Amino acid sequence: MAPKNLPAAAKQQKILDYFRESMSVFTLKELEKILPAVASVNAMQVKDVLQGLQDENLIRVEKIGSGNWYWCFTSDAKKLKENTINTLKAEESKLIVSIAEAERQIEEETATREDDNEMLEGNGMDRKALLEAYDALLKETDLLDKELACYSDSDPAEVQRKMEEVINLKASTIRWTDNIEALECMLGDLTKDRHQTSEIMQNACGDEYVPGEGLKEL
User: What angle, 0 to 180 degrees and rounded to 10, lies between the N-to-C axes of helices 46-55 and 28-39?
Assistant: First the structure.
């Protein structure tokens, strides 16, 4: 006779042990008579307990004739464990592949950022310097436009050169801005924390980065 007031998990284990030791198959009526003594299960609850074991694939049930037959052999338990292990190994393999792909993407992204940094360092300019130069050229272009309007006989070649320089500089500034925003997205994916990502970006970009809004508009 099993002790009374056993936890549900202990009752399940006693039922499984009984199935495996008996090496037999049982009808529901038989189990309603047997299990109260084996696992302190109320006869009215036997069907529900068996359904729970079935849902967890801990016992096997087959409908034969007009009724269900229940059993659980040691070989079934072993097979279940092997299937569980194989499933976990398959999931582990998928995770390893996903992690490797994520690391590869991070390495590629980091290499791209380093190349961009080297390019800007080689020119002796960062984003802030580019913006300042861009503003200065805009002002200079405005002045040249005014001079051109006042002196129709002036050579427009210099004005055109300045305008092309402004366009190229603006393109470089936009490209660098896109790179910084892409880096912000990658940091967001890595940290999963908007506040932490915002702090990192603000420390890196200074006044050019507005928390909650991103980089200032050009």
Answer: 90
